[in-house]
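Appendix B, example 12.
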Amino acid sequence: MSRLFDQKVALVTGASRGIGAATAYAFAEAGAKVVLASRDEEALQKVAARIAEHGGSAIVVATDVRHPEAVSRLVEQALGAYGRLDAAVNNAAGGTHRPTPLADIPAADFDDELAVSLRGVFLAMKYEIPAMLGSGGGAIVNMSSTAAEWPVSGLAGYVASKAAINGLTRTAALDYAAAGVRINALMPGPIHTENLDRAGPQAREHVANGLPVRRLGTPAEVGVAAVWLCGPAAGFVTGTCLAIDGGLLAGMPSFGKGK
């Protein structure tokens, strides 16, 4: 995918770490000018510095995707800095509570999860799409999860938001397909990010062994998939929710010890 995005502009929310940062690096490596957004401006500056070290161009816009005015300002700053918007990956997600049975989840925690993970994606598309239409078209990837189709107990807000993102993605894809804006979702399975780091090596090994490929995914693998979905090779792809999950959704591995 080298240089596929020369003279193009890509926006990534939730870009301060993990999958979001890896996606930003992948766009920069493909030649894009990158707009980095999250609430953690200090972490974003580190991502931007790494992109600059490798000869790329990036700007940082501290953004809370729960608020329309903040997301509107984000897109305006992208257009002000680079004059166009060609691709966007809406990766920002909220909710930090431990797995909790539904009846024990505070309503405020559930609301916060949906405000960032679902409403934030809606708001991002609401402002990204007009900017892309003004640039002659573009592509959006919303970050969902295999949990949208293979739910995890104790994570009601997370599962609900990701399932809703799939529906939102397909609806938006239908709305704008004829106008030249493609909209898809990625559904990562278990990816080796900070959350699994905190869980410890035994937990990581347990999760990896439950996957058909017997390993965790990497943020970089999700990032390059997002870039591919936004690129010309995926020009006939819209309204799809693509699993990148080591075979998780394909079914249960054999009970044997086959390699």
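The radius of gyration is 18 Å. The longest strand covers residues 181-188.
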